[in-house]
Amino acid sequence: MRLSLRPGSDLMAKAITRNTSVIKIITSSLVNKTDDYIVGDSEWPNGCRSDLVLEPKSSSIGLPPIIIEFQQSVDYPFLKRVIQYSLQAYQRYKIDPIILIICMNNLSSDIEQSIKRSNIIGCQSYPCHGWADKCLIMSKNILNTLTPSENADPFVAFGLFLTQSTPITDIPCDDATMNHLKNLAFDHYTSLIGNQIHLVDFVKDLLNSQEKQYKDLLDLTSQENSSNEIQQSIKNAHVKQQELKRKFDELDDINLTPATTSVPFNTASAASPSPNASSSSSSSTAPPSPNTSSSSSTASPSPSPSPNNASSSISPYQKGMMFVSQFKADRIKQGKERMDWKACIKEGQQKGLLLNYKNINTLKNQFVKFEKSQTKK
Question: Which portions of the sequence form the region Disordered (predicted)?
Fold first, then answer.
């Protein structure tokens, strides 16, 4: 099977970067720490949303949050949005954040003229006095200037992998870090298999909503003196679109947990290839099965925990929904008619499930859709 998914796609990049081993690679380079960060809430109080936020495990250790943005092209309007994220982060954490922008393609000319050399390998620095601790840009052009020995650095390898424009199967993996990242990409790909049902439901809701909006606009255009109503209808449609985008962002978070969990990656040993680490095969290589161990010595996938001994080939989404269904059934057997969603999500997370649900409302909504999809079968 030839994968058309590329490492630099938004979902793929976020899925790879959320992995604990990759977080260690990033924090090791940016703040010289490996075990002090976790994935934080990427939605800010003003309604805007970052791609990924890494926050310190404790506010008492004085480390800055790290905001990571994956961007095809970086220009001045985009930097304006980044400044908003940074100011929101300061309000939340009371410390200026580090901004890491991974640019898949090009920097605009005005940004190129403003960036300077950085002491972080693979990055250049953008002026950020007063709104961020550091603003680092890692782009394909910058990475292409590095030497082979510099490319062996795990953080550089991470940047090189995400800025590839070729399919996953075509990416050469000539060192341990690249091979590990490729395995994570395959894990993410396999996690998408089996999640189609609730994704289809979401898209149907989106299309139905847009169809109604277009019909309302057409009705208004047939009326005389309806310009004000048309403007208001467009504004309402825009608000609705933002709500749908926020729901889709939540759906992204739910689907970012890979179907298999790789063994934590040793960043110290990643700088040089392991003699036993196998290189990538030809472009026709199929993604590894969730039940098959990876050939890489640095990333051996192990099955995710599953309720009731469910098969490890079942996606994390399905495992979570199966757990909720069983939890609900057990309460009914105990004579408890009301579902305790708070207890459900707490127990599920203790079992290694439902980890990406931000709140009980998100879990409840997804379970309702899951039940509907099961009824249709």
Answer: 259-316
